[in-house]
Design goal:
Helices cover 44% and strands 0% of the residues. With 54 residues, it is mainly alpha-helical. 4% of the residues are buried.
């Protein structure tokens, strides 16, 4: 489904799973929709905040 919609390669998806890369907004929303999760709750997709040390 992801490859058909976003032309995301298996390697790119694996890198997202392993936390090597952060997906773009459109791909992140598609993945979260498919897995029925809130994209704001995925810690690996959050950028570090120097104020909160996340």
């Amino acid at each position: 489904m992801i490859n058909n919609t976003m032309k995301c390669t298996l390697r790119n998806y694996q890198n997202i799973e392993y936390g090597v890369v952060i997906p773009n907004v459109t791909l992140a929303l598609l993945i979260s929709h498919l897995y029925k999760i809130d994209p704001r709750e995925v810690d690996e997709w959050k950028y570090p905040d120097k104020r909160t040390n996340l």
